[in-house]
Structures are given as C-alpha cells and as structure tokens.
Amino acid sequence: MKRKMSPARTKAWIKFGLIAFFALLFISFALFASFLAPYDPLESHYTHMLEAPGRSFFFGTDQLGRDLYSRILYGGKSSLLIAFAVTGIVSFTGIFIGTAAGFFGGVFDNLLMRFSDMLMAFPGSIFTIALVSFIGVGLPNLILAMSLTGWTFYARISRSLVLSIKNNVYVEQARLGGASNVNILMRYIMPNVLPSLLVNIFQDIGGKLLTISGLSLLGLGSPPPAPEWGFMLSEGKNYMYSAPWMLIFPGLVILISVVIFNLLGDSIQDLMNPRENAW
Amino acid sequence: MLKMIQKRLISLVVILFGLSILTFGLTYLLPSDPIEELITSMGSGHDPEVIARLEKQFGTNRPFWVQYTDWIKGVVLHGDFGISVKYNKPVKEVIAQKLPYTVELACTSFLTMILISFPLGILSAVYKDRTADYIIRFMSFVGVSMPSFWFGMILIWILAVNLGWLPVAGSGSWKHIIMPTLTLSIGMSCSYIRRIRAVMVEQLSEEYISGCKSRGVGKARIIFLHVLPNSLLAVVTMLGMSFGGMLGGTMIVEMIFSWNGIGQVCTTAISARDYALIQGYVMWMGFIYVMVNLLVDISYSLIDPRIRRGMAQR
Lengths: 279, 314
Description:
The structure holds two protein chains of two kinds.
Chain A: H1 7-31, H2 33-36, H3 68-104, H4 106-120, H5 124-135, H6 139-165, H7 169-176, H8 181-217, H9 229-237, H10 245-272
Helix pairs in contact in A: 1-3, 1-10, 3-4, 3-6, 3-8, 4-6, 5-6, 6-8, 7-8, 8-9, 8-10, 9-10
Chain B: H1 2-26, H2 34-42, H3 48-58, H4 64-78, E1 83-84, E2 89-90, H5 91-126, H6 131-145, H7 148-162, H8 174-204, H9 207-214, H10 219-257, H11 262-271, H12 275-303, H13 305-313
Helix pairs in contact in B: 1-12, 5-6, 5-8, 5-10, 5-12, 6-8, 7-8, 7-10, 8-10, 10-11, 10-12, 11-12
C-alpha cells in the first residue's frame, strides 16, 4: 500500500514542479535562440542605432544598431552552455575523486586533501582570472580555467559524505556478503551520496552564471562580436546616458536566470528534507 | 594558542610555496614563447644564434627548478617580481603604489557588509515569519542572485548620472568610495544575512532557549548574550573566505568605477600581456588572503571558549 504524501511534501513537489517548468522554459528560450530571435545578433541596422525599445526592436538596439533582444537570446545560449558544462565537469570529477579518496583513504586521500587545501586557500576567482589571462581568452579556455578551480568543493563534500556512510552496518554486511568494492560503491554508497549533492549542483549553476558574466565583463569570455551578457553590460555602461536599455536588459536577464536556478536548488533542498526549511 | 599559531604559520608557508609554483608555472602555459615574441618585435628573423644568445641572457634555457629558485629568491628577499612591461617600471613599485587603494576599498566594503548583515540577519531571525522577516528574506534572495557589477552600474546610472549626487568614477574624496563599497559589499551582505538568520533560527529552537525563558530571562538578554555568541562561531569561519572573495571582486568593481587600485592594474596587465605584473598581483592577493585567514582563525579561537581552554590545557 502506498503511503499518502504529507502536506509538506506535496507542497515541496508543487513548488519544485513550478520552478522546474520556468527553468525549462528559460533554457528552451536560450536553446531555440536561432528560431526565436527576430534578427541576426551580429547584424547592424545602421539606420536604427541606439534605438529605444519599441515594436520592431523589443529591447532596443545598441551602438551598432544590433537588436538587443536577439543578442540576449544568443548570449543566453553560450552563458547557459558554459554554466552547464562547467558545473557538469566540476561535479563529476569532484565527486569521482572525492568518493574514491573517502572510500579508499590512505596516501591518495592525504595528497588530495592537501592539494585541495592549497587550491581552497586561495580565492578561486583570482586564480581563474590569472589562468585565463595566461592561456588566452576563449570559451574552451574559460571552461578549463573554471573547472580547474571548482572541483575541490565537490571533492570535499563527497569525501566527507562517504566517510560518514562507509562505516554503516549495511556496508559491512554487504562486504561480509562478498560484495566487491565497486559493487559497494555503486549500490550502497553512491545512492546515499548523490541526492544531497544534487542540491549543491543546482545551487552552483546560478553562481557559475554570475562568475561567467563577471569574467565576460572583464573581457575574458568569447571575443567581442559574439553576444555575451557580461560583455554587453560593459558596452552598455558607456552608453548609459543615451541608451539605458543597454544597461537594464542584459542585467535583468542575468538576474532572472540566477534567481531561477537558485530557486531550483532551494526547491530541491525542500524535496530532499521536507523538515522546516531554513529558507 | 602559540602552538596553534605556529602550526598555522607552517601550513601558511606550504600554501604560499604551492601558490608560487603554480604562479610561476603559468608562464609555461603561455601559448607563445616570450623570446620568440621579442625577436619578432625586434624584426630580426629566426636566427638561431640570436635566439641562443637571448635565451642565455634571460636564462630561459635553464631547467625549470633553477629558474624557479632564482625567481622565488627575488620574490622572498626583495619582493621583486621583475619589470612590468606595461608600466615600464618594477612590478614592486606599481604594486606598492596601487595596493593601498584596493585594501582601502576591501576594508570599507568588509565593514559595510558587517554593518548591514548583522542587524538585518538578527532582525530577520527574531521576527521569523513576520512581515519584516519576509521583506528581508526577499531582498536578500534577490541580492544574492544579482550580479554585483550590474548593481554598481545601476547605482552609477541613478546616483551619479540622473541625480548627480556622487561622482561617476575615479578615486580621491570620500564621495568616490561610496558606490564601489556598496557594489562590492551587496552580494556578500545578502549571503551573510541569510546565513546569520539560518544559524540564529537554529539556535533559537534549541532547548536552552526555553530553559532561559522559563527562568524569566529577558528576550534581549537571550538574543544578545546567548544566541548571538553561539551563532557568531558559525559565521566567523566564513569571514576569512569572504575577504578573499572581496579581493577577487575588486577587479570588476575597480574596472567599473575606475578605482585607482591594483585590480584595475591587473585588468590592464591582462590585456597588455604583462605577465610579470599578473604574477605579482596573484602572489600578493594570495599572501593577503592567507594572512587574513590566519587572523580569522586566531580570532575564532579567541571567541570560542572551548577552543581557548582546550589550547590552555594542552
């Protein structure tokens, strides 16, 4: 017989469903940018430079007469892509390394912890900036630099989770029953580790989006003609006297996207432990 | 206590050593060979003899460790990072000139953050699930999700461009520091408000609180003498990390407000490919960050009587 869901749980599911719907909507806007954008994001309409938002240009145009709405859509595609790629790479490698270290322990564990101490003992943003400036700007390099500094966070969390799980009685029993290491990891430990990490992963996407837009603002994202939210803002700053919409819309879109992913993380947290939510 | 500091100092040296290797190693990641670039800029073509002479002159043909020891000797003994190509003077001088501005900005932002987040966080926890709490929660959620540089630009747009109250950019008078400080501290303040609230709400549901209440202890006394000290511990550990985040954040804020600090220097150094300057920047930031974290750890052990006494017993 299936137990009835508690009201708190039902509420958490409804909240999650709603936010997930908006997140998917948002993602699909970015994914289908090429269908939804009314103009080519790089095309200049020289007769419509710095035009205010209106019927033909929803969000107005920039200093070269490019349609801001189309540029924001295309910019979303690259921003979301990088955010997903980095979060994916970082969480996968971090969890893999952290779980192995926690499970097997020994010298490898020690080395790993010292190494991540070192990376953590230093502001990641500065290291990312330095790395990108040395290996050169561009999307692959940006993803690489952000990944190199980001994985330690996941390694640490998954390591401590594994440590708290691996001494449980059921793990010992599985071992007595002749289960191999891989078997124990896959069947008994991972199912306990992954759900709590899921919250971190989703909350991380919002943070990554902020980092990406910040880096692209500094000119460390993809090179200029490509539409990028951060870089659009740094262009907009120069025209805030005459064209404030160049400042307002890209920023609003960043804000909304980060809000959506933060809410998604929060709602997953509510789902995971439906006790009274801290937030 | 002294033992703890000693131990921390040793690990600090290890961390800085690792950082220096990473920073120095970065030059090996350069897509182009500096010697090659120099030759092309001199226009002398690919003469192997010239290359060999230049390599000898700059010492780039020596093994990594020899080069590294030379470099780190200069850094540790004289704070010498070489010559900045962009500013055409020693990196040391550029940093000495600009670093105070950045530290000033980071400190004012740090203070502002504490002044904003503690009162609001406490308020939000004490008035949990009331109107004030909802408003603070909503604002801090938006603040956490907002790109701080956008907030800064909007500030410029409203306060400087439209109202004309504050100067648009630059550094000098106290008026110049207001907007950069707000920009740098907003995101951090909001995450602290959330954090402080969460910790305090947890403390308020502990049993000792009902014990206090039943003994007739006043509400203000409970909050400021019991809950706050207990909550502080969880928050103080974050402070050191946040200071590092602020140092990193200064780069963007300084760019937006043309603040005359080291972050802006680094931004120009990046576009000018001034690698010695970038190395100097990274090492200095790392040094400050590690030192601040040490101070935070020490103050942490001073706040927590358990750690303090544990130290004394040992």
